[in-house]
Each structure stands twice: as C-alpha cells, then as structure tokens.
Amino acid sequence: MENIKKISVERREQKKFKTDTRNLIDVTLLGICITLFGLVATIRPEMVSGNPFFTLQLVLAVPFFMCGLLARIKEASYTDSHRWVKLSSISFTLAYGFFINAIALLLSFIAAVYVSMIFLAVNTLLTLVRASIAISYAPENMRARILREGVHIALIVFLGILPILGVY
Fold first, then answer.
1. What pLDDT sits at residue 6?
2. Which of 2-11, 20-29, 49-58, 137-146 has the highest mean pLDDT?
3. CA-CA-CA-CA torsion for 77, 25, 121, 117, nearest 10 degrees?
4. How far apart are CA 41 and CA 47, in angstroms?
C-alpha cells in the first residue's frame, strides 16, 4: 500500500514538473511572438501589411499558445484531464507550426530563400527524429504522434514552404 502512494506521489511530481516545463516553453515562445510582431511592425511595417502568410501566422500563434497554456492549467485541476491534454497538444502543435513558418517567412524576406528552406528542412528533420525517439519509448502512442507530427509538417509545407516559393 505504501508503494502505491509513493508511486502516485512521484507521478504527480513528475507530471507537475512536465507541466511547469511546458508552460515555461509556451510562455517563452509567446513572448517571442509578441516581441517579434512588435519589432517587425515598428521597424518594417511593410512586412506586416505586405505578406498575409507571415502576419496571420505570427498573430495566430499568440492565441494558440495562450489556449495551450490555459488548457494545461485546467489539466492540473481535473483528475480525468485527457480532453485538456488533447486541447493543449493541438494548440501547441498549431502555434508552434505557425511560429516556425513566421520565422521562415521572415528569413525569406531578409536573407536568401535557401536559408529559410534550410531552416524548415532542419526543423522538419528534427521533428521526425523527436517523433521516432518518442515512439521508440512508447509505441502505443504511435498513431497520435504520427498525427500530431503530420499536422506540423503539413503546416510547414502548405503555410511555409509553398508561400516562400511563391506558389501562392
């Protein structure tokens, strides 16, 4: 009986650490998004008004990061929190995809296009590496992981690579 309580306490502490760490990452990325938008709007306002893909993704990253943060706070309040976990995961995936695309689009404005393509290629490669390692530890989560990383990569292709290449 004592071991059960000890494991439960250890799992709760581990979950709290994981949640706190994720919140810190989200808050940091949220701050970067807001700062980046403010800097670009102040220094080069034509970038904000001239490229809807850049502006929209940078702006949309903010509420999605916020939604993920708030969902994670709720996640800690409920014993059955799987819906909050899903919402925070979906929100982070979308926010992070928008954020990465905004950086790549910004790179394409201020540097050669190949620099932004390398940035997106490395990001995609590392996403696949992280997913592979996560799946190796928890093969039962393979379907959810593939779906989440698939959405992330689709965002990069359709809202990052194709606009940078001028397809639309």
1. 55
2. 137-146
3. 120
4. 7
Distance CA 46, CA 72 (A): 36
Among 56, 63, 68, residue whose Cα is nearest residue 26: 68
Nearest to 30 by CA among 81, 89, 98: 98
Residue 151: both structure tokens together: 């959405």
Q: pTM of the prediction?
A: 0.86
Ordered by start, the domain boundaries in the chain are 2-164
Task: Read off the pLDDT of residues 126-143 as tens digits, 9 standing for 90 and up.
Answer: 999 999 999 999 999 999
Token readout for 45 is: 């306002």
DSSP letters, 37-85, are: HHHHHHH-HHHHHH-HHHHHHHHHHHHHHHHHHHHHHHHTT-SS-HHHH
Residue 159, C-beta contacts closer than 8 angstroms, at least 6 positions apart: 53, 57, 97, 98, 101
* Residue 79 to residue 15: CA distance in whole angstroms: 12
Instruction: Note whether 54 and 114 are within 8 A (CB).
Output: no
Rounded Cα gap, residues 23 and 29, in angstroms? 10
| 130/19: higher pLDDT | 130
